[in-house]
User: Fold this.
Amino acid sequence: GTVAPAAAGTTVTAYVIPNTGSNAMITLRYRLRDFGVKANEAAFTVGDREMPAGSFIIAATQPAKPPAKVATDGTPALTKAIETLGLDAVGVDAMPTVAMHDVDVPRVAIYSTWGNTQEVGWVRHAFDQFETPFDLIYKERVRKGNLRANYDVIVIPNQGRSGKGLVYDVESKGKPIAYKKDPRYPTLGMYGESDDITGGMGLEGVVEFQKFVNDGGVLVTLATASFMPAEFGLTRTINAARPTPQFYAPGPIIEAEIVNTSHPIFYGYTSKKISVRYGNGPLLQVPAASSSQVLMRYPGGDASVLSGLMKGANEIRNRPAIVDVPTGKGRIVMFAGNPCYRWQNHGEFGMLFNTLLHWNDMPAAAAAPAPATQAGQ
Assistant:
């Protein structure tokens, strides 16, 4: 990466890091967690170079944190962080005048059931690799309540086959099953412990997630986890259906269409149509009155299948791929697919990372998509 100085004879007031879609943007934000960082909401130019929406604008001189009483020049730490991540920056002699918002660092949790942990592990791996800190929480923490006091964003990765499977998890057969470290099993309990892994979070846990969102938190569900908000009424107007038995899609690459290109989730994406891995999540249904909540959809049909196999491709025609549902003081962001599938679809990671970075800067309502005459709208 390179850091270009301001024009000759001027003083660098701020650095602009253009958002070209690199997943390292979230790494940079966390490495600079003590810095004030802003993002532009519309593109602007520096010289003859365009700075896309979602670029980072960082003042060259940052207010010192207590107990220091004077400002401190953070430029060396800033330039080092930028260059080591392979990012570029341009020095400017004045702050841009376009609309901007603060990129606040969220407190993040990843929720895991006890019975389905593999896909959770891959999301954890991605967060670890890109230096995005999180707490791993289970039903015990959810039932404890008061989630909003500790977290701004909770991600529920792909797990279970339905909302019911996510909520009730391992079937209880009357006898507790403990997962705890003891002399016989000294390696258990490294990441979490339970006196009884059966029963799931239950309705009690669903209520706590509802409180979390109503109090201003952002709940993010991936693929099959997105059945839960719809089936348990957290998103009152959104329905989650299943395809027919004739439908078959073992992970093909298909075309998706971004409906609201200005939404922060799509910072760094330059095309309205992108390639995504189909993740066998729910077929979401959104009523016309809530159509502004649809951020991305699947055009569907055989022509949208770019690689791999999908039988019954018409069943996903115009189905929502991402839905952003303002709920109470917070919101629920539902991905019908899996934007963090193992260590494979890096081009989709950015949508999940943007959801974290801009968790409290999403619009109250997105621009409504054009009316659809096919299924799903």
